[in-house]
Amino acid sequence: MRKITVLSMITLDGVMQAPGGPKEDPSGGFKYGGWVAPYSDKVYNKVIEKELKPADYLLGRKTFEMWAVYWPEHGDFWPGINKGTKYVFSKRLKKSDPLVTGWKNSAVIKSVADLKKLKSSKGPDIQVWGSSELVQLLLKHDLVDELRLKIHPLTLGKGKKLFGNEAITAAFTLTGSIVTPGGVIIASYKRAGNVKTGTAGA
Q1: Is this structure's pTM higher than 0.90?
Q2: In angstroms, rounded to a whole number, what is the distance separating the alpha carbons of residues 190 and 77?
Q3: pLDDT of 202 over the 80 cut
């Protein structure tokens, strides 16, 4: 069984779209690409550096298409992304697609059954970066073992969100957290069974 970890930079209102730069993902008229940059500092960067350890990767089609153009030429910053296996979840892409064949160690998976089979297989742990629609699908089918969130102190209103309305009800346990000098809460949550309810103060 392989662990699936979602790593995401989000705003207080859950927006995760285009944190890295103005041209990263302007779809839907998104105007705030690169909103993470003002919060960079030594503490933040050290966390990022640790998260870039070798792994396998599960990406949505749009994220994969953007990354397949960029990362093969910038592997000096993140060697693991080119060495690890990239699984792209897509009904549109085929294994013969030039983007898939052109980025070393890439493969296409097409169904929830394939996702479950991948998780049950042997191999390195799997990281999910970006890929909002894929993350929501994973949460819907209870396939996320860990959330590593960087919660930035701003709201953007519109934009692609980390959480949709179809996530399975699930409890998570906080396994670690820090606050950067810039006010970013970096927190890790591990899947922890079912949701419990009760009466406050009883």
Answers
A1: yes
A2: 28
A3: no
